[in-house]
Amino acid sequence: MKQSTVTMNQPIAAVISTMYGRDDLHYFRQSLDSMLGQSYPQEKLRLYLYVDGPVPELHERFLEQNAMHFYRIVRGEENRGLSYGLNQLIDCLEDESIVLRMDMDDLAHSSRVERQVAMLEANPRISLIGCNSWEIDESGGVVSQRDYPASPAAIREGIARGNPMLHPSYCMRRTLLTTHGMRYRELYLNEDLGFLFDVLERGLELANLQERLMYWRVTDKFFERRHFRRHFIEYRAYVQGIQAVHGLSTKQIYPLIRLVFRLLPNGFARHIYRSSLRNNFLRG
């Protein structure tokens, strides 16, 4: 395990993640290892896991063999979805002052927690930060790079065009969840987008650390989850969120453009998704 390079007065941080019955345990193992290999002091890094409903025997054995790595495992009797699971973990947090998101098919750079916590500590006005990332495929090979807007103003302005933060890179102050009462709304496959709009509506500031600290895995399943229900919920979340953050605005044209893109055939959408056209659109 890596030696810590931060001082012992660093805050206690919680990492919240979920497990589902269809999760790939190979990816899950890699993701867990990336958190266990953090340069942040392991005694100050607590992993919380919500098991969303029944899981196969193979997953049960995995949990039994790795239970010592988790500070707490919370189980649900039935599958209730991401927002419910994350909120359950939020409600059982203890004395942690920093909370990080992590999807258990992605990978974190070994300095992710250390660098993000340091940025929050140095910028008391920022409530939640993300970071830049590499996009990786099924085998872990780097496919592309993802850059996100750095400043609170750029994020607030850019959210109408597209999600300005990578959701598994979220690192937030606990006060966002206590003082401001933030929770995840039930927005099928758009929970994190809704979360950002809710933070911005409260007048709080977001930022992205301009370092690549995440390996975000995008597989064919990412594109297979494209269907009208998800697209309509996303469209409605954007329309309502833009109204809440910007009021009456010409920015409402962007959700419509996104909806048209979402309805394209998967092969064409995959090509555009990884092209400079998409990045140029998001940057404006």
Distinctive features:
284 residues; alpha/beta; Spore Coat Polysaccharide Biosynthesis Protein SpsA, Chain A; 11 helices; 20% strand; globular
What would you note in describing this structure?
By secondary structure, the protein is an alpha/beta fold. It has a single domain (13-283), classed as Spore Coat Polysaccharide Biosynthesis Protein SpsA, Chain A (Alpha-Beta Complex). Helix content is 39%, strand content 20%. Strands 1, 2, 3, 4, 5, 6, 7, 8 and 9 form a 9-stranded mixed β-sheet that branches. Helix 6 runs parallel beside helix 8 (228-246) and helix 8 runs antiparallel to helix 9 (253-262). The model is unreliable at 1-6 (pLDDT under 50). Keywords: Glycosyltransferase, Transferase. This is Glycosyltransferase EpsE. It is an enzyme of class 2 (transferase).
Inertia-based shape: globular
Structural domains: how many: 1
Work out the number of β strands.
Answer: 9
Q: Under the CATH scheme, which architecture would be assigned? A: Alpha-Beta Complex
CA-atom Rg in angstroms: 18 Å
Element string (H = helix, E = strand): EHEHEHEEHEEHEHEHHHHH
Total DSSP helices: 11
Q: How would a textbook summarize the main sheet? A: 9 strands, mixed
CATH fold name? Spore Coat Polysaccharide Biosynthesis Protein SpsA, Chain A
GO molecular function: hexosyltransferase activity
Domain Glycosyltransferase 2-like: 15-145
Protein name: Glycosyltransferase EpsE
Pfam families: Glycos_transf_2 (PF00535)
